[in-house]
Each structure stands twice: as C-alpha cells, then as structure tokens.
Inverse folding.
C-alpha cells in the first residue's frame, strides 16, 4: 500500500490556505501546509485591516499569527518549502519541492496566491532594494523623513500612502487613470494628510538613480497630452499595481485548469478539472479577492476535499 506524507497538501499559508488546513484538520484528516516564505501571505504586507468581520481593525501580521496558531493548534503541520511541481497519478498526487523532495498526498489544495506585478520600466530591477519596494509595511520605515511615490490606484496603493504619510516627509500617489479604484472610505482619508498629493492620468516611464532611487519620470496618459512628461524627485518608489498568479508548479498538468491570465479555473466547490485538486484564494478565477473571500474558499475546498477522500477511502486506504 502506498505511504502518504499526509492526506492533504495545502500549497500556501495565506488566509485561504490556513483556513483550508483548519477545516481539513477539524474533519480528522492529516494536513501539511507547504509555504515558501512566512505564513500569512499578503496579509503580512497590510499595515491595517479594517474589513474583516469581527475586527474593527487589526494589523495584517497579528491576523496572520492568529490564523496560523489556530490551524496548528488543531494539528495542521506547516513546512517551509517551495513547491516546484504537482503530478497527478491514479492514487493521488506527487508533490516535488525545490529541495528535491518528493512527497505523496491523496488530495491537493492550491492556495499559493499571487505575487506583486512589476511596472516593467527601465531602472526598476536595478533599483529594487535600493529605493524600489513592493511592500510599504516591510520597507516603509527606511524612508522616515523622506519623499516617496506610491504607484497605483487600488486599495493597496491608497492604504500604503496613508501608512507612509505618518512618517515620510511627502507621499505622491501616481495613478494612470482619472479616478481611483480604491474604496471611497480609503480615498476620503487622503485629504486628512497635508503631506499626501495625487498625480492622476500619469504613468511611470522610468525610475532614475545612480545606485539609489533619485526620481521617477512620468508621462501623461490623458488623451490630449500624450507627450507631456515630468520628473518627480523622490527617495523611494512603492509599487502597488496589482498581482499575478503563482501557480507554475501546475504547468505540466494535462488538463484545462488555467484561464488566459494564468489563474486557476474551478467550479463553485473550488474543484478543478483534476479530481482531488482544488484551488482557493487569490490564485483562482474569481471576481473579488479579499481576505473574507479567501477564507470562504478555504472552508469550501477543505469540506469538498474531505468528502472526496471519504468517498475514495476504500481505494486509497489509510495514510501514514
């Protein structure tokens, strides 16, 4: 009989993965969460979360710690490993890691989320870590008393600007459209800071600096002034222009599980076209990506995986 590392592998320890682990453990299944960095996912980069039910406000790190402790208290195991491949076979899945390990599982829940989208402009890669950052909470304090730019117009960008304004000399929010996509409750707060200004209808053409960020070159996106350019002197650039899915470890699966943008297709049960493989949270095709929708996905997938494994117990036998 095949020996299994655990009944269920959860790939990623963000809110979706931690919730899936919690529900699967409560159902009596052994669960191993494979996480490449730190538990919490994108919650870790959130200075303050104000739209999670039951919490008027909470730091992303605190909420991540609480979720992690809850899942592990029920028996979920968290292992730090980067998954490089998931290979379906007749009796489950082989999961390969960057360390060269091969582990066997009866079901897999992909909860690997997304990674920050880059601007793709000259100077960005060369100056990353030298003034270019993708995490205001992680790096913001290095810019105390300095001038910074935040690039983007969604909730993350506006939240970053509000956070940075508390200790930076000035914060300039640059957005390529004529209005923000962020929630009104966030954009309304911009006016309460004298050191925040906005530049609309502009995109970053280049990030300039000799060893450190010194300025960003902006070009107008307005229809009547496409050639208008300006230079904004800054000490730091915080990029918040969206995310891209991280699911390359499923690339070799011979089934139609991806959409045109690389997100994982599922049905309403979070099940993919591959039996026993589920996808939850930001990595799957969905209209809204929030912590609340992530934990919902995690709960749904874990219950579905539990039912799937129970139905197939005579085939798979018991796990080790």
């Amino acid at each position: 009989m095949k020996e299994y590392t655990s009944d269920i592998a959860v790939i990623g320890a963000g809110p979706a993965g931690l919730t899936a682990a919690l529900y699967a453990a409560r159902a009596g299944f052994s669960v191993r969460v494979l996480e490449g960095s730190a538990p919490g996912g994108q919650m870790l980069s959130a200075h303050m979360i104000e739209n999670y039910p039951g919490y008027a406000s909470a730091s992303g790190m605190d909420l991540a710690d609480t979720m992690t402790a809850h899942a592990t208290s029920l028996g979920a195991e968290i292992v730090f490993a980067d998954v490089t491949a998931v290979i379906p076979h007749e009796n489950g899945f082989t999961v390969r890691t960057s360390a060269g390990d091969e582990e066997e599982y009866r079901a897999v829940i992909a909860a690997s989320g997304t990674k920050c989208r880059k601007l793709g402009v000259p100077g960005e890669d060369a100056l990353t870590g030298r003034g270019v950052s993708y995490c205001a909470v992680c790096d913001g304090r290095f810019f105390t008393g300095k001038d910074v730019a935040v690039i983007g117009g969604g909730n993350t960008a506006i939240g970053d600007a509000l956070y940075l304004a508390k200790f930076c000399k000035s914060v300039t929010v640059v957005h390529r459209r004529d209005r923000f996509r962020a929630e009104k409750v966030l954009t309304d707060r911009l006016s309460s800071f004298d050191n925040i200004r906005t530049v609309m209808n502009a995109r970053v053409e280049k990030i300039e600096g000799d060893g450190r960020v010194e300025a960003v070159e902006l070009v107008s996106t307005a229809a009547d002034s496409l050639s208008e350019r300006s230079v904004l002197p800054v000490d730091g650039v915080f990029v918040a222009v969206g995310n891209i899915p991280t699911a390359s470890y499923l690339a070799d699966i011979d089934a139609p599980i991806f959409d045109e943008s690389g997100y994982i297709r599922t049905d309403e049960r979070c099940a993919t076209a591959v039996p026993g493989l589920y996808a939850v949270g930001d990595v799957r095709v969905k209209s809204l990506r929030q912590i609340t929708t992530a934990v919902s996905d995690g709960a749904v997938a874990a219950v579905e995986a539990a039912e799937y494994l129970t139905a197939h117990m005579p085939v798979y036998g018991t796990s080790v």
